[in-house]
Amino acid sequence: MNTLNWIRSDVYEEMEQAAKGKLRMIPGLWIDGKTYWMENGFKELFPEENISVHVKRDNVHSKISFFRSYITNHDDKPRNVKLLIQHKHEYSSREHFSFISPAENVIFHMADSKVFLVNGQLNGKKMAECSIQPYWNLYSDQIWKCRNKGILRYHPMVKGNAISIFVFNVGFEGKGTVEAESWIVSGDSKSELLRYNQLLLKKRTSISI
At residue 42, does pLDDT exceed 60? Predict the structure, then answer.
């Protein structure tokens, strides 16, 4: 019995250590007051909305996770939706600290002596609306100031288990596809992260130190 408990404890510890230092990106959609999160993958059709999302990950640098999100309207009618980009730590801790930096217009997540920067753009437009929320707000609809209008509740920082969310407004005149870009940069210093961020905003195809 003691051996079994030891094995289980060891397995759990390995799982926790593997998850430490990782930040997960979860895409979602806001459509006419309803919120959809893609928890189980990067490709999904929402048949009741006739809209699909496909996210592809590009390998551009060992310190960068770069994503291209393709939102497709399969209807002929014009419509406006919102692409939601959520980030959360795989391993929760009270020692995590997440905050919005308005001067640089980016979001920082700090955990286990590591710093992450998250940002993105759509058609050359930078992130305009964002929020840091306690994790439990996600499933109680507390992330919204006005859910019917798709306006996030603004909160600039959270210590502990938190998520960050930023929003892109997506407009369709009819059938079509819109591409958005987002990224996670990991590093040891703020200056290093901001340098990579500027390169990504300029759409460099290769990133070098």
Answer: yes
